[in-house]
What we know:
Largest sheet: 7 strands, antiparallel
Helix content: 10-25%
Order of helices and strands: HEEEEEEHEEEEHE
Radius of gyration: 21 Å
Amino acid sequence: xxxxxxxxxxxxxxxxxxxxxxxxxxxxxxxxxxxxxxxxxxxxxxxxxxxxxxxxxxxxxxxxxxxxxxxxxxxxxxxxxxxxxxxxxxxxxxxxxxxxxxxxxxxxxxxxxxxxxxxxxxxxxxxxxxxxxxxxxxxxxxxxxxxxxxxxxxxxxxxxxxxxxxxxxxxxxxxxxxxxxxxxxxxxxxxxxxxx
Length: 196
């Protein structure tokens, strides 16, 4: 009787171990500590940053000349010769996959408003847009907020994309007079994001 019950227990134990190994290869948090690489296309060389998500690599080509500084939780970019401008990529874990549709807009707007710095005045939502671009074949949602801080007018864009249970946030901050240029360059570069 022991031998017959040991065989099923061994089978169940082996099956559980195999399942645990399979689940262990699932996606994890993105490590934004960048390594550098290059991509060549028709004789032109493009500089890439490589992030890691478990065993996966994510390639990204920032706008040319932008400086960057990253760690495990986020990466920040600064454009040359544009004071007070910066962009940032980070992530938030979601309890479950969530669609980025029109019904999510109010919650995303509220979340974006929490990213305005303390002490800001004249805070207002300037625009919202569903699917301004696609990232990793996923829909996106963007909220742009205007505010005033120390007598300067600023614009803050927060672009959201949900990949499984991970929500990526792409933030762009600049003075109002520089925002369109910085926004166009950074948001345009996000199409280069590739999960390898």
